[in-house]
Amino acid sequence: MSFSYYTPFLLKLAFSFIIFGLPSIAVSQESSTRTDVANSREIVVDMESYVFSPSEITVNVGETFTLILHNQSFLVPHNFLLDDPNGTRVLDVDISSGDSQTHTLTLKEPGNYPFYCDKQLLFFPTHREEGMEGRLIVQ
Ligand SMILES: [Cu+2]
Q1: What residues does 47 pair with on adjacent strands?
Q2: How far is the CA of 124 from the centre of ligand 1 (A)?
Q3: 29 CA distance to ligand 1 centroid (A)?
């Protein structure tokens, strides 16, 4: 392992500081109501560079479920963009590194809902292009 092995990562790290600054204590935006959360199925989604796990989630039409989105990255901010089968944005959540957010949803239209992270650092590919995408199947 030479220094050059780490160079791309160190460059990204340096750019991260320049673009995003040091990780701040994020103000978490909880959009869900507590009564919904108490009764809904919880689905944990881990966000890393550059993958969602799980990357495929299946829910039932009309089911109320809660997404618990964890950004596991040490420095990299991610987002969780969810579109409906027609391409209309359903959820747009920014999650800074180490943070997590909870969102409760009820989807009434069956189909495939793609989700992805479109963050991008300068000229690097978007996180989605790096493989950070998945799909929510409503059946
Ligand atoms: Cu990302």
Answers
A1: 52, 71
A2: 12
A3: 18
Write down the pLDDT at residue 40: 84
Q: Give the separation between CA 31 and CA 91, rounded to whole angstroms.
A: 11
- Cβ-based burial of 102 (10 A; exposed 0-12, middle 13-18, buried ≥19): middle
Structure tokens at 120: 């991008």
Write the CATH number for 110. Answer: 2.60.40.420
Q: What is the pTM of this model?
A: 0.73
Q: How far is the CA of 139 from the centre of ligand 1 (A)?
A: 27
69 token code pair: 């989105």
User: Is 25 a member of any domain?
Assistant: no
Asked if residue 7 is part of any domain, the answer here is no
Q: Residues whose CB is under 5 A from ligand 1 (ion)?
A: 78, 117, 119, 127
Q: If 0-12 CB within 10 Å is exposed, 13-18 middle and 19+ buried, where does residue 116 land?
A: buried
Q: State in Å: Cα 71 to ligand 1 middle.
A: 9
Q: Is the pLDDT of residue 2 over 60?
A: no
> Domain limits at 98?
31-138
Ligand 1 center from residue 48 Cα (angstroms): 7
